[in-house]
Amino acid sequence: MHIGLVGLGKMGGNMRTRLRNAGHTVIGYDRNKDLSDSSSLADMVEQLRAIGDGPTVVWVMVPAGEPTHATIVELKELLDAGDLVVDGGNSKYTDDADNAASLGEKGIGFVDCGVSGGVWGLENGYALMYGGKATEAEKVMPALLALKPDHTEDGLVHCGETAGAGHFAKMVHNGIEYAMMQAYAEGWELLNKVDIVQNVPEIFASWRTGTVVRSWLLDLLVDQLRADEHLDKIKGYADDSGEGRWTVQAAIDNAVPMPAISASLFARFVSRQEDDVAMKAIAAMRNGFGGHAVISESEA
Question: In CATH, what number does 170-290 get?
Fold first, then answer.
C-alpha cells in the first residue's frame, strides 16, 4: 500500500523502514529535513495522490497533545472524504473522540492505534492496539500486518469500535509497565544492598528462564546490570510520559482500585525530589526499551 508517515523519530523512522522492508511505499514527513521525504504535509499528500488512486492514508507519529492536534487540523484541510488519519502516538484516549469528530465533518476516517515496541520494533515488530470503526481500519490493514510481530497471531488487536479504545488499552499497558518496573527495581535495590548475596546481575539473569517473573523488561535490566553492576553511572531519577497518570485518573473515574500502579507512579515523583536508588534500575530499563534519556551521576 501507499502510506504517509508524519514524525520520523526513534519510533517513526524505524516504522518507515519496517514498512518499506515489507514492500510498502512510505512517504515520510518530518520537520528535520535530513529525515524527511517531503518538504511539507501538503507535499507529502500530493506525492501520495500521484502514486495511488485509492484513499489517502496518513499515519501520525508525533508527540501527544498540541503537536498531534495541530497536525490533524492541518491534515483535515489537505485530505478528502474517504481518506484516513491514523494517530499512532501516545495520545490521551479522550482526545481521540474530538479528533474523530472533527475529521468526520469532512468525511475523513480516523483510527487510533497504541504502538508498543520501542526502539526494538524494527527487528521484533510492534504490538498494535487499534480503535475505531473496523471499516476504516481495513484501509490501513496492510500496514498494520506489516508492523505487527512476525510468526504469531498475537500482537494486533481491534480494541473497540469507539475512537479512543486503542489508546485506552495502550494507556493501561503502560500503567502495568510502571508497576512491573517498580517491582524489579525494588528487588534489585534489596539484593544489591545486602552482604549475604553476591553476583546480582547473574541472579537476575537466572530468572529469565523457567520463572514466572521472566519478561523482556527483565532481559533489558540484565543487559544494563552486566554493563554497570551497581548502576553507578545513572542518577536515580525517572520521568513519566503521561500514561501512568492517565491510568490512575481513569481508575479514579471508574472506582477501580489500583494500588500497585498508583504507588509506582508516586515513586517516580519521589525520585525528582531526592536521588532514589531503585529508580536507577527504572531509568536503565526505560533507556533499554525506549531510548529514553538518563541523567548520569556526573551530570547530576
Answer: 1.10.1040.10
Reported as a single tens digit per residue, the pLDDT across 41-92 is: 999 999 999 998 899 999 999 999 999 999 999 999 999 999 999 999 999 9
- To the nearest 10 degrees (0 to 180), the angle between helices 216-227 and 277-290 is 110
For residues 158-162, give the mean pLDDT: 98
Catalytic positions, written as ranges: 170, 177
In terms of C-beta density within 10 A (0-12 exposed, 13-18 middle, 19 or more buried), how is residue 196 classed?
A: exposed
In this prediction the pTM is 0.90
Q: What tens digit of pLDDT does each residue of 237-260 get?
A: 888 878 999 999 999 999 999 999
Residue 212, SS3? coil
> CA-CA distance, 60 to 29, in Å (whole number)?
10
Domain 2-161 has CATH 3.40.50.720: yes
Query: Residue 116's beta-bridge partner residues?
Result: 127
Q: Residue 99: which of 78, 82, 85, 113 has the closest Cα? A: 85
